[in-house]
Each structure stands twice: as C-alpha cells, then as structure tokens.
Amino acid sequence: MHCRNRAAVHAALPRSFLHSLPRLFPRLFPRLFRFPRSTASIIKGLALMVSIIATSASAQGTAASPADGVYDLLVGTYTGPKSEGIDVYRFDTKSGAATRVSSAKTVNPSYLIASRDGRFVYAVNELPGDNGPATQRGGISAFGFDAKSGQLTFLNQVSSDGNDPCYLSLSPDGRYLTTANYSVAADPGGSFAVFPLEADGKVGAAVLTVHHEGGGPVKGRQDNAHVHSTVFSPDGHYLFAQDLGADKLFSYRYTPDGSRGLLGPTEHRYVDMKAGSGPRHLVFAPDGKYAYLTSELAATVSVFRYGDGNLTLVQTVPMAKPGFKGQVGAAAIHLSPDGRFVYASNRGDANEIVIYAVDPSNGHLREVGRQSSLGKSPREFSIDPTGHWLIVGNQNSDTAYVFRRDLQSGLLDANPARLDIGAPVDFVWVSPS
C-alpha cells in the first residue's frame, strides 16, 4: 500500500503566559482590557482571549507543550510476524533515548492521531490491502490512552466506509474525525468519510462519505481516484482532500452549524496538479500563510500560498538528486516546529530525507541537505515537539532511526540510534504531564 503530521496536550495556562498576552496580541489586547471596566467584563475579555488562542492552536492540531522532558511516542505499524499493532515508547527529549513500555493489538494501524488532550488515540485499520476482497471495508479504531502509564485501552471500532483507510485528521472543534480511503480497488474507489466523536472517546459511524471520480495517466497507480490525505485549513473553515489518482487537491467548506451542510464543495472545487504527479500529503506552515505538498509519483514538493480557502501554487522543487535514475516515491512531509525547515521522505531507490530551508518572505524552498534513512521505504517520519529529534520508520527494513537535529542548520546527525520495530509507518507524540 502507498498510504500514511499529531498530538498535543492542552495544559493549564501558566501565569507567565498570561503576562505575555499584551506582547502576543498588541492590537487585540487593548480593546479587550480597556479601563475602567467591571471585573466581570475583564474576566469575559480574558475568556475570549483564551478562546481565540485555543482555537488557533486547534486549527493547527497543536497546543502548548513542555519545552523538553519525556513524551510518549506511539508507533503505528503494518501488522505481521514482527508487529501486533501500536507500540508505545517513552521518549526522553534530552537524550533521545526511547524505551518500549506497552503495545496494543489492532490490524494495520498505519496512521494514528491523538485527541488534543491526549486522552484518546484513533487508528485506521488499513484493509483489505492489495490482495484483499474489494467487498471488505477498512476500519477506524478508538482507544483510551493513559499517558502516565503509556497504556492503551480499546474502546470501539467502526467501518471506515471505504477501502484502505490511510489518513486521519481532527476537525478544529474536535467534534469530528475524517479519514482518507485510498482504495486500491476501482469499486468503491477513493473517498473520504466523516465520523462524530463521543465524549467518552468512542468514534461513531460515518455521517458523511464523499466519493471522488477520475484518474490519471500512470497505469496501475491512477486507474481511479485515490484519496490520500484530508487536512483542515489553519483557519478551521476548509478541508482539503489530496487525490493521488485524480491529480487534484479538492477543497470543501466546513460548516458544523449546518447552515450549508457539514461539508460542501467550495466555489473553486479543486486545484489541478500536473498530470501523473500523484499528490499525497499536505501540511500548513505554522503561520498559516503557506502550504507544502508531496507528490508521490513525481517525487516533488510544491509550495502554495494560502488565503481564505484558496491554494495558489508558487513553486515546485524536485526531491531526487540531479541525474538520479532509480525509482522514486515521495511520501511524508513535515515542518520543523519553528517553521524554518521542511522535511520530506523519498522512497523507491532513494530512501532518504530531503531537507529544505524556508524563505520567510515568500515561502519558497531551498534544498540544504539530504540524509539516508538507513533502510528501505521511509514511508513516514516525525519531529519531536522540541525540534531536537527526528525519527524515521523504514517500513521494509523493520527499523526506525532517531536522528539528532541541528536547530540552526536543520541538518541531521549521521549517527542515529536504532530501534527494531516491525514495519513502522507512523509516529505520534503525547505529553504525559
């Protein structure tokens, strides 16, 4: 399969953070706290400010986390002789040491996501796969998670309402979970589905399924639609569905109040990508001004300017070295926590992480380095919340490597620590504190 950037925990706002509000929001703060005002008005203003901050964090799928310390690292796998499902490691961000603490049995949890408070974890069950019956549907499994002990508890499972689910995302308000159904089979074909989330962490049956149509020129890979990722915009108003088979980035308006239906097509409907390129994963910059896309079949990274539901292509750069003649296969893409660097994994015969510096004036990328993944098929990787470490999973080598990352240059230390994990293909961080 060819499918796959995240958990953070809301913490009580520290006093030092509250004191920093005027500096963080110089224009908004005076309007909320203009004196003289009643105590009730001040409290109401502070509540509004906190709500704005929380909404902004939720739109990015992140929230305040400790600067360093210990995190739980959850690893999704393809199950087989060397893996039973999800592995949980205790990761020390000061030393880079990872210690396995538990595991949970579930079939092919190739993509994971945690609730923003870290109490629940959701996994796709990527079925039926390349050789399975087209009548079989994949699944979405929900788990309770005790971050302090690192233990997962199975809650429930529902049908993904499609074949080969390979991606998950949380709506900005935390009410819904979306999945991309890649679908190897032409029938039912590529789609994405939307699931309600219950207060107890369980996932409900799909309330909406959207099927895509179309294909591309690459035989065997683009014979029909293949939705590969579903990503909410930073402002929380739109959902983008990247379709590898149709060479399109579909855009949908998210209206949870029901005024226009839960999700509906935007005026522009989609962004056309180069025929045969195979768009895969999309990520937004921390400031929300730009978005970055890997195209699997072309092995490229594209840069888009973002504004009010619209993506405008401004640059496309190759991932392969000049003159490279082997097979390629762009996969995951992530930004460093400070937004200064973009990292993308390239599989095929390249098996490496390509590193780009971001020009803050226009979002453009400039290649600054590349690092071998030291294995075969680096499908997914992740940067820890402190930015000091990058872990990459080699699906076909049953290994993961933890690289030390230089915050200034963006480069990776060539002497990483090795973890032996069966078919590792996804990583999620959760703070136990």
TrEMBL record:
Pfam families, A to Z: Lactonase
One cellular component term from this protein's GO annotations in UniProt: cytosol
Keyword Hydrolase: yes
Molecular function terms, GO-annotated: 6-phosphogluconolactonase activity
EC number per UniProt: 3.1.1.31
Protein's GO biological process: glucose metabolic process
Keyword Signal: no
Keyword set, alphabetical order: Carbohydrate metabolism, Glucose metabolism, Hydrolase
UniProt record similarity statement: Belongs to the cycloisomerase 2 family.
Protein name: 6-phosphogluconolactonase
